[in-house]
Recover the amino acids of this structure.
């Protein structure tokens, strides 16, 4: 089982902030279930976007995306989004966050 951590930026956790805004209990349950499976090594429907960033696709409601990266045996949750048209902007933000860490 892999340890899942959440990325912190300026004292905030972007993943948690977005997750708390979700009003659909079914979507919250599916996201939580997929993260549990991810921790067990079963990513399911995912895509590697570049050398560092992965996208976990969750088809419920408007379609959710969890962006994450790996650091050793840990999975770091970066961002949770549900807006496909802004995907390229979100990925650029994630890349800048990861570049700040190095």
């Amino acid at each position: 089982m892999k340890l899942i951590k959440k990325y912190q930026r300026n004292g905030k956790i972007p993943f948690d902030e977005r997750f708390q805004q979700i009003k659909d209990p079914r979507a919250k349950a599916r996201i939580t279930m997929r993260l549990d499976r991810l921790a067990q090594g079963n990513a399911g429907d995912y895509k590697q976007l570049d050398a560092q960033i992965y996208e976990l696709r969750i088809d419920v409601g408007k379609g959710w995306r969890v962006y994450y990266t790996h650091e050793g045996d840990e999975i770091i949750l970066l961002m949770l989004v549900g807006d496909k048209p802004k995907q390229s902007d979100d990925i650029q933000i994630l890349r800048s966050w990861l570049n700040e860490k190095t």
About this structure: The beta strands are 3-6, 46-48, 54-58, 64-71, 74-81.
